[in-house]
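Recap from last week: sequence in, structure out.
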Amino acid sequence: MGVSTVNDTDSTWGAAFRNKPIFFMSRKEMDACVDANGIIHKSKLKNVELREDTCTLSSNDTFRRSNTTYEVYDKDKGSAFLDLNFLIKDETSSLKGSLSDKNDVDFYNFTIPFLNFQRNYFSVEAYIDMPEGCDYDLTLYDEYGNQVGKAEWDGEGRKKLTVPNWDINTNEYCLKVENGNGEEVSPDDFYRISFHVTDNKEHEKTDAVREAYGNLYSAYSRKDENWRDYLEKYNAVLRETEQNYRKELEELHKKQFAGLPEGKKYQGGRTVEELLQDMAEGKELSEAEREYVKIFANLKDTEKAQQKAELKNNFSNEFAKELEGMGISREDIEGMQVRIGSNGTVTVDGIEDETVREQVQKLVEKKYSGKMYQYYIGIADSVGNLPYNAYRYATDIQEVRRYLKGVTGVDISLENLSMMPDGMIGGLPKKADHLINNTKNNAKTEQMREALRNIIANIRISGDLGIPDFTSQFQFKDGAFSVVDSGFAVNMGALDGRLTPQSSGNMYSDMYHYQFQKVL
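Predicted structure tokens:
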């Protein structure tokens, strides 16, 4: 009896998968549409509005989000919490956000929710509707940090970009929203992001890799003794696809550069790396240099350079100006060190005058602790270079420790927490227990519950390696702040080895992996 796969043109399953994408509901989506009697009402997930995250430390100001859950507010039915991926599944829904000022930048991470072998049949378009009179840039980055799309006006009063279909392996992306014309914006003016799924008219570019994967999966599933031959063929196709991906990326960037107005085409001889170094040092780039960087630079490198420049110039000047209003000069704080523990405790050293030191410490605690934390995780290599699972674990620790101390006034040992059979989190002090386990319809609490579940699971997995605590550390030298990378006390390489599942003795263990380095 022959084996039918989704690659077969006469396969009923194959035809179904090609005609319409099949989506599976996530746990969050199930929670959002199940009523008190356990009945699913899918109509609840139509025409919903996701809200921009503004309640966590990183919010959506950093490209590497440890939590991508957005609130769907309903005062009558109660709030639900969904990932951005949901908008690809339901085109009637959208995300509502705003830029707080003309320099604000918002990031949104999402994953293509198609099954692997469906990827080349369908294409995903992202749209941004803007407030009247505004011109925002919507830019797409792949999971490796490459710029892979810039939204253009679609003739209907909004901008559109298409997620590239260069392969079927790359499925994590980041959208960046920023003010395009530099004019003033109002935080009360909202933009909307939505998605649309269409047929992929260039599916032949990835037919080979889809077919090779389908053949491998079929051979392995039926325990064909020659399944490794199919694996070798699949790996060969993957290597070829990787090279094609690089070529497509290069062609896209060339096309984008050629499409710039002549005055914005960079004609200098400096490299992207040299321009980013200038940016990091706080030097002003020309308009042509900025456009060049936007096209060719990696997202991670660009954001790190911008964070360094902002910390050195804008933030340092704002901080110094605030102190001057208190009668404290830059000379009074020259050489000081600021440390912000994972529980939010601020320590200031290097200032001889005790009164001045206490005033500075209180100012950081009251106004700048969260912003300085964002600078640290964006600049310090010990955090920024972490793989996804370790990064999320470490940043979840920071979020949760601050939250629990703010609620209870004391440090809580995370090692003593546990998941109860009823899904509640055990081991919390009474006040925190009530907030975490009983509070409904609150975005902040939902984020903390999700982070706590992640932490508890990771503590169990990592065993005796310890918790990845870090201290956000800064120095004030030559009139400006800079980050001092304090690293981790635990072995993060060993920790990530336990957190990241490793395949062994199956079809995935010897599968080829792209040489691109993931940054999302």
